[in-house]
Amino acid sequence: MGNRVAREDFEWVYTDQPHASRRQEILAKYPEIKSLMKPDPNLIWIITMMVLTQLVAFYLVKDLDWKWVIFWAYAFGSCINHSVTLAIHEVSHNSAFGHYRAMWNRWFGMFANLPIGVPYSISFKRYHMDHHRYLGGDGIDVDIPTDFEGWFFCTTFRKFIWVVLQPLFYAFRPLFINPKPITYLEIINTVIQVIFDITVYYVFGIKSLVYMLAASLLGLGLHPISGHFIAEHYMFLKGHETYSYYGPLNLLTFNVGYHNEHHDFPNIPGKSLPLVRKIAAEYYDNLPHYNSWIRVLYDFVTDDTISPYSRMKRHQKGKVVLE
User: Would you tell me the crossing angle of helices 102-113 and 78-92 to the nearest 10 degrees?
Assistant: First the structure.
């Protein structure tokens, strides 16, 4: 269904990613931005409240009809759980406790992981650091779709299915692109999560467990917040690799929409990224950006020039040090 996308490969480039050079230039002109490179302790309380909110939701849905379990999983739980994944993104950058207490961030990430239902926090950190260091790196950056995704999801209907199934592709893609040996922290993350899931089942019942898992699957698939997956790096304009979003959903997502600013300064918590844009406005105001993630999803599905192949990709030069 729909026209077939003409693109048959990624956009291969032979230049370095733009963020490192822009970071140096901005810091030379505005050294006060360094003062924003500090942890955001408010994350601790915000994340704790989100986890507790989902625990209350588990209790409230345990006796509902199945149709209402799924309804609330999408209408409410999906927003919380997607927001939690972006809180884990913040914690992966050590934004909760700072770089000097890196292990505190890892343990706190496992705590934040609990209402998602699937062990995620530790593995995400390992791959996400590679994404920042080697943006678009062939065989390194698992944010880039596989060749199969680009080849197969090439019509309007297939792209729609790809959007719905995004959480599954993000989960399994690393196994094909950049598999890594399992670490003891990943084992601990998995054991803690399995124990939590079993506890939810025995304390609240099967409906609460399904609510939790459905909230994650639905919230990371066809959902307004999921527009950020595509908005961040899919090449809607030739030559532009990263795009920011300045709409209201930043309030639920720890300002992940400020994505050019985030890649330029990954050590600055999301709370302070609007200040980066304000201070160095001339570097950001003229870059292409979005105001609607829903529009991004619609354009991705319906535009027959855009597909999973619409990513800039590069062969990495020099020595590669993986997380």
Answer: 170
Q: What is the pTM of this model?
A: 0.94
Residue type, 276: V
pLDDT digits (tens, 9 = 90+) for 181-228: 999 999 999 999 999 999 999 999 999 999 999 999 999 999 999 999
Q: What's the one-letter identity of residue 172? A: F
What is the DSSP code string of 70-111? HHHIIIIIHHHHHHHHHHHHHHHTTTTT-GGGHHHHHHHHHH
Q: How far is CA 230 from CA 57, 117, 244, 265, 271, in A?
A: 29, 24, 11, 20, 22
Phi, psi of 309 (to 5 degrees): -75, -10
CA distance 290 to 178: 30
How does DSSP classify residue 52?
A: H
CA–CA separation, 240 and 112 (whole Å): 33
Give me the residue label for tokens 């600013």.
Answer: 261
> Beta partners for 137?
314
CB 81 within 8 A of CB 214: no
pLDDT in tens, 147-168: 999 999 999 999 999 999 999 9
Tell me how far CA of residue 137 lies from CA of 13, 91, 226, 261, 316, in angstroms. Answer: 10, 23, 23, 20, 6
Contact 274, 260 (CB under 8 A): no
